[in-house]
Amino acid sequence: MISKELKNNLSGSSWVRKMFEEGEKLRAIYGADKVYDFSLGNPEFNPPVEVKTKLKEIVNSDISGIHKYMNNAGFSDVRLKIAENLNKDLISPLGEKHIIMTCGAAGGLNIVLKTILNPEEEVIVFAPFFGEYKFYASNYGGKCIVVPTLKESFQIDLDLFEKSINEKTKAVIINSPNNPTGVIYSEDILKKMADIIDKKEKEYGSYIFLLSDEPYSKIVYDGIKLPVIHNIFKNSIIINSYSKSLSLPGERVGYLAINSKIEDIDLLFNGLVFANRTLGYVNAPALFQKVIADCLDATVDVEAYKERRDILYNELTSLGFSCIKPEGAFYLFPKSLIEDDVEFVLKAKEFNILLSPGSGFGCPGYFRLSYCVSMETIKNSLEGFKKLAEYYKITN
Amino acid sequence: MISKELKNNLSGSSWVRKMFEEGEKLRAIYGADKVYDFSLGNPEFNPPVEVKTKLKEIVNSDISGIHKYMNNAGFSDVRLKIAENLNKDLISPLGEKHIIMTCGAAGGLNIVLKTILNPEEEVIVFAPFFGEYKFYASNYGGKCIVVPTLKESFQIDLDLFEKSINEKTKAVIINSPNNPTGVIYSEDILKKMADIIDKKEKEYGSYIFLLSDEPYSKIVYDGIKLPVIHNIFKNSIIINSYSKSLSLPGERVGYLAINSKIEDIDLLFNGLVFANRTLGYVNAPALFQKVIADCLDATVDVEAYKERRDILYNELTSLGFSCIKPEGAFYLFPKSLIEDDVEFVLKAKEFNILLSPGSGFGCPGYFRLSYCVSMETIKNSLEGFKKLAEYYKITN
Question: Does the CA dihedral A129-A27-B292-B137 come out positive or negative?
C-alpha cells in the first residue's frame, strides 16, 4: 500500500512516536503540569514584542495583495533586507539573488539537497546530529556519512573528517550552535575544515558544499561571537529559520543565503528556486515573510534561556551527571547514567520526565534535554531528576 | 554542480521563466496597466471578509502559543472542523484521523506521492493537465502516464483510461474543475472510472489510489453540483487548498482528506504524516490553519469570476476562437489560431497579452488564459485580442 522505503523508515522512527504518545498518556493521567516534557525543541516562549507589533500592523492595515503568490524565491524587498542585514558581517556582500525564502530550515535543507544531489552521492554529518538529516539526504537518493566528533568536547575530529571525504562527497552539514550538544565550532576549527574541503575539491575536481544549518545562531551565551561561515568557506550555503530566534516554529519561515563567491551562481539559484517550486513548497508563507523582514535584529529573550541552562546544568552536574556546558541553542546533552540510553529514557518517564535518547542523534549512551520550557516545569522537575539519579546509585 | 536530473528539468521548463521575465520587461517598458497578464493562476481578489475578520481577531487577541509546533498532521481542532464540514456530503464520515493539514495542494500532492510511490510505479494523468504533476511524480521515482481526454469535450476517454492501467499503476490524478480547461467530470463518468479501477485492483491485487486535486472545488458556475469523490471511489484521497477558494495562495495552507473506506488507514495516515515531516514541510503554517478553520463555508466572489468568464468567453468566441465554456475554475483553454501554440503565445505578447501555451499542459495547439485578473485588465485587453485575431486572419 505504501512505499517500501517509507514503511521501513516509519518502523525505524516509531519509538519517537511512541514516546510522544506515552507523554500524552502521562499528561492525561497526572495532568500537564505534573509531566516534565524536555523531549521537544518547541519553544515555550511567545515571539518577541517586535514580531507581535509588526504582525498586528500588517494585518490591521488591510494592504491589498499581501496573501498572493510572489516569485518562488520570495518577496524581493524581504530578500534584499535579509541580504543587507547579513552584509554587516560579510567580506563578500550578498544581494537579492543570493537569498531564497524557505519553509523553515527543514524546507531549506530539502531544496538544497534536492538541487545538488545525484543518486548515491554522500553528505557528511557529525554525530551527534539532528536525526532528520538522514531522511533529508535519502529523499533525493543521497547517503549520510556519519562522522563522530571528539569524545567529551563534541568538536570536529579533523582527521576523521578528512578521511571521510571521497569523490562522492557532495556536501557537509554543520549545525553550530549544535542540536543536541549546544557546542559552537570555533573559527580555528572551521578554517581548518575549509582548507580540507578546498584541498579535496581540487583533488577530485568536485564541488563540496558546506551547508550551515543555523537555526540557533541567535541563541548564544556568555558573549561568544559566532564565526561567520561565508567569510571562512567558499562553496557555502547558510540555511536558517525564524523558528527559534523569533519563536515562530509553527509558521514555517526561513531562508537560504548562498555565498556570493560561488561560481555559476545563477545555475545554483535557478536550481534552488525550481526545487522550491516543484517540491511543492512553492514559496515561504507570504504574511510571515513580511513580518520577519522588519524584525531581523529582534530575538527571543536569550537571557531567559541562559537562566534555564544554568539551573539545569548546575543541578544535573551536582547530581553526578556528566555534561558539557552548552554555549548556545537550548539543549543539554548529558551522559546517560547507564549504557543503554533508551532504557534510561524509559526509566526517566517513570518520574514523569520526558527526554530524548542520544541514539536518535547518532550518539548512544547520552540523552538530550530540551530546556525551551517554562521555569516552573524546570523547577518542578528537579525532584524527579534527583530520584532518577538516586535510583541508579542504588541500582549500580 | 547541481543534480543532472534537475539540470535537465530546469532547461525544459525555462520557457515559463522566459515568459515571466518577458512579462516583467513589458511592464517596465509600457507600465503594468498596459500589460495584460493572463499567464498565472494568481488570484487578483483579496480574501473574503470572513478571512480578514478572523485573521484580525486571532492576531489582535494575543493568544499564547499560537505560533508553536503542533502535531505534524496539524491542529486537532482544525482537522476535526474540516472533517465535520466535509461530512455534510459524505456517506462514510471522516474524523480527525482522516485529515492532514498541508502546505497547499502542491505540498499535499508531494506527500501523498512520496508516501505511496515505489520507484518506477506509474501515475496516470489526463491531458491537458497541470504540468507540475510530472515533477511531483518524478521527485519520488515515479512516472506520469499521460492519457489524452476526448477531443472537443476534454472529458475522460474511458477506453483509453482502462488500457493505460497496468500492474505498475499506483495512482490516478484527476483535477475537476480542471486547470486548464474549466471542465467538470460528471458523476456518471467518475462512477465508470471507479468501476474500472475496482476491476483492475482485483485483477492485479494492487492498490490504485484516486487522487482528487480539488483547489477549484468552490469555484463552480451555473448551479452545477460537484460530484462527491469519496462517495464514488474507495481508495481516494482528496487534495485541497485554500489558495483559490479563499484567495490565499501565498500562505500555503491546504489539507488531505483520506477516504474512511480505505483499509489499513493507520499505516497510510502515519506514512503521510511522516512524509509531511521528513520532506521538511513539518506542518502547515500555524496561524492560517486557525484562520481557515472558521471560514470553511466562505468563498471568494464566484459571481465575479463568472462575469469575467462570460465576457472573455463571449468576446473570444465572437472573434473566431474555438473554446469550451468553463463550468468551474478560472481558466479558458481555447484553440490556438495556429498549430504552433508557443509561436502563437509569443505573437500575443506583441499585443502585450501574456498567455500560457497548451504544450505546458501536455496539449499543444491550445493556450490557457487565466482570468483571475481585474475587470479593467480584461476590458483593456479586448482590443489586443481583436488585433491578434485580425493578424491571423490576414496572415492565413
Answer: positive
Whether A43 and A57 map to the same domain: the answer is: no
Of B104, B135, B286, the CB nearest to A250: B286
Q: Rounded to whole angstroms, how far apart are CA atoms B263 and B261?
A: 6
User: In chain A, which among 110-149 make CB contacts under 8 A with chain B?
Assistant: 110-111, 114-118, 132, 135-136, 139-140
List C-alpha distances in Å: A331 to A179, A254, A341, A367, B239: 7, 21, 16, 10, 37
Q: Looking at residues B276-283, what average pLDDT do you find?
A: 96
User: What does the pLDDT read at residue A350?
Assistant: 93
Residues A33, A161 within the same domain = no
Shortest CA gap A112–chain B (Å): 9
Are the Cβ atoms of B107 and A281 closer than 8 angstroms?
Answer: yes
Total structural domains within chain A: 2
In this structure, are A147 and A79 located in the same domain?
yes
Do both B9 and B99 map to the same domain?
no
Helix (H) or strand (E) holding B270: helix B265-278
pLDDT value at position A2?
92
Q: Which residues contact A143 (CB under 8 A, 6 or more apart)?
A: A120, A121, A122, A123, A137
- Tell whether A286 lies on the interface with B, counting CB pairs under 8 A: yes
Three-state DSSP class for residue A38: coil
| CB burial readout A227-263, b (16+ within 10 A) else e | bbbbbbbbbbbbbbbbbbbbbbbbbbbbbbbbbbebe
Chain B (173-212) residues lying within 8 Å, Cβ to Cβ, of chain A? 207
Phi, psi of A124 (to 5 degrees): -85, 130
- A28 and A54 inside one domain: no
A126-147 tens-digit pLDDT: 999 999 999 999 999 999 999 9
The C-alpha atoms of residue A116 and residue B312 are separated, in whole angstroms, by 44
The identity of residue B296, as a single letter, is L
Please report how the helices A76-87 and A286-293 are oriented relative to each other, as an axis angle in degrees rounded to 10. 30
Decide which of B229, B261, B293 is a domain's last residue: B293
**B 229-268 → A contacts, CB under 8 A:** 247-252, 263-264, 267-268
Q: How many CB atoms lie within 10 A of CB A71?
A: 16
Is the ipTM above a cut-off of 0.85?
yes
Count of CB atoms situated within 10 Å of the CB of A104: 30
CA A362 to chain B, closest CA, distance in angstroms equals: 17
Measured between beta carbons, which residues in chain B are less than 8 angstroms from residue A54? none
